[in-house]
C-alpha cells in the first residue's frame, strides 16, 4: 500500500499518483480490502460484523462518484472494493458505471462483483442490465479456461431480483429449450447452486447477518460428530 501524502490545493497529480491516493484512502490495509477479499468479513462475530458493515456503508455513501469510477476501472482489487462500496452505499448514481463495465465495449472484468452489485441495487433497471448481458453472453461459446462462467452468475442475480421484485425476467432464459439450456456451457453444476451465496452477500451489503458464521459452526459440529462416529 502507498504511504500517505498531503496534497496541496491545486497541485497537479499524475493518474498514477491519483490512484495511489485513492487506494490509500479507500482500500486501507487495516480493514477494508483484506476482509472483503475472502470470507473474513462474513464469519466475524456479529457485533464486530455490524461495526464493519456500518463503516462500509458510511464509506459507500461518502466516496465521490469520480473516485469510485477510477477504482472500478483500475483493476480487480480496486474494482472489487468499489463494487462493495457501491452496493453497501446503495449508490444508484453509479449504476451507469456498472453498466459500462458489464455490457459496454470496454468491460472492466469484475465478473461476479457486477452481479452482486446489481442484485444489491435491486430494481427493474438492474434486471434490465443483467438481461442485456445474458442476451449477448448466451449467444457466445463458453470460455474453456473459465471454470466458473459469468453467465451462471448473471442468471443467479437475475433470479434473485425476480424473487425480490415479483418478476419473471429469468424465466425467458431458463425455460425448457431456452437460451440457457441451449448454451454449451450450461452442463455441469446447476446454476441455482449460487442462489444462497448471492442472498448472503446481498444481506451482508445491506447490513444484515449473512448467516455464514452460523452455517460454519453447524458444519464444523457435524464434521466433529462424524469423526467420533
How would you portray this structure in words?
With 229 residues, the protein is an all-alpha fold. The protein is 62% helix and 0% strand. It has a single domain, classed as Leucine-rich Repeat Variant (Alpha Horseshoe), CATH 1.25.10. It is built from 13 helices and no strands.
Summary tags:
229 residues, 62% helix, 13 helices, 0% strand, mainly alpha, Leucine-rich Repeat Variant, globular
The ordered string of helix (H) and strand (E) elements is HHHHHHHHHHHHH
- Report the biggest beta sheet as strand number plus sense, adding barrel if it closes: none
β-sheet strand percentage: under 5%
Shape: globular
Radius of gyration: 19 Å
Measured distance between first and last alpha carbons: 48 Å
Number of helices: 13
What is the count of structural domains? 1
Give the overall pLDDT as a whole number: 83
Tell how many strands the DSSP assignment holds. Answer: 0
Structural class: mainly alpha
The CATH first-level class comes to Mainly Alpha
- The name CATH uses for the topology is Leucine-rich Repeat Variant
Q: Based on the structure given, which CATH architecture is correct?
A: Alpha Horseshoe
Instruction: Give the proportion of residues in helices.
Output: 55-70%
Q: What ranges have pLDDT less than 50 throughout 5 or more consecutive residues?
A: none
